[in-house]
Give the backbone structure.
Amino acid sequence: MRIAVLSRNPNLYSTRRLKEEGESHGHEMHIIDPLKCYMNINMKSSSVHIKGKELPEFDAIIPRIGASVTFYGTAVLRQFEMMGVYPINESVAISRSRDKLRSLQLLSRKGIGLPVTGFANQASNIPDLIDMVGGAPLVIKLLEGTQGIGVVLAETRQAAESVIEAFMGMKADIMVQEYIREAGGADIRCLIIGDKVIASMKRQAKAGEFRSNLHRGGSASLVRLTPEERSTAVRAARTMGLNVAGVDILRSNHGPVVMEVNSSPGLEGIEAATSKNVAGRIIEFIEKNAKAHKTRTRGKG
């Protein structure tokens, strides 16, 4: 098969691993920077071009679209979908998962465990917003933040009010969430392919930090999931419509709660922690499922 990887940086670990595994399986792999693509959109023969040349036909495409280029990246992916290329994650599903508020609303509708979350637009609502999530300490998140950036732990009510007022004054969209103290600065990353958790790791924040992201100094270790945690992760990925996803879960006193569903989960940390060939499993999933025009939404929405 001829498989494209939509990625801005061919040297990133995840991009390199997917290319290596694809080639080891006998496939022709192409790494394409979505921002260098431009599109010919017409009713007869739509196409995607780079540097004055039309790209060849692909059998499948693996989107590794960074959060900062979600709009243009998903537009390029949608163009490939409309041309019949099989995407391992569809543009609609990626856009859905990147919208933090929308994704939480969809997960709550399906009865999936979540931290109590509040969202408001006016400063006059701040006192009730804080009470809504159980008071301080609480977590304040920028809706546009990624990888732990724009996430603040407010230890007191006064600090919470000040931070929320500051963000609102900057016209930034934020949400507030209850602080799951019992998680102890740890979360669980579940790597989903299809309808199975194929790898999982526990990420522990460094001392003095509550964000467990590995690039912020957190550590990773093997973890055994409970049946409820496994089911929660799979249902969360399915609700987003993602075939490949990283689902981040906290262990709370009222069961597992989903913090985020990531449509482009990094492979380096979880492959190192579990010694599992996640990239190879992604290629195998494509081999079993890729068919022309198999996109469920066909680029709609």
About this structure: The first strand starts at residue 2 and ends at 6. The chain has nine helices and 16 strands. The domain at 97-113+182-284 is CATH 3.30.470.20 (D-amino Acid Aminotransferase; Chain A, domain 1). The mean pLDDT is 91.
